[in-house]
Fold this protein.
Amino acid sequence: MILLGRIDDPDALPDELLISTVTIAELSVGPLVASDDSVRAARQAHLQQAEADFEPLPFDGASARAFGQVAAALRRAGRKPAARAYDALIAAIALANDLPVVTANPRDFAGIPDLTVVEVQVRH
């Protein structure tokens, strides 16, 4: 999830921020499964802001090949790729484009060699 307004130290972020099509897909689920109208509206606004602010990086052929490496690495590390499918797909897009993953949850990307993970702290 994109938490740009809640990052403790914005200077810790890379100069250019990008988003993946998988992240947009993940955000698209939120409004559809919201428990009430106010949560639904907030999630829809969040999705629309992300779509307005970013041109998403696609999951392309290079990403598909990188996903094979990510899934194999996760299995070797004793993790189940299907359980963290969104994260594995995001990691594959990052690897295919030689980009870091910026996240408040670096453990989600543990066990993936060659992936640069930039941890950010967020206010709750």
Notes: The CA atoms of residues 70 and 112 lie 6 Å apart. DSSP finds four helices and two strands in the chain. The longest helix spans residues 37-53. Strands lie at 101-103, 117-119.
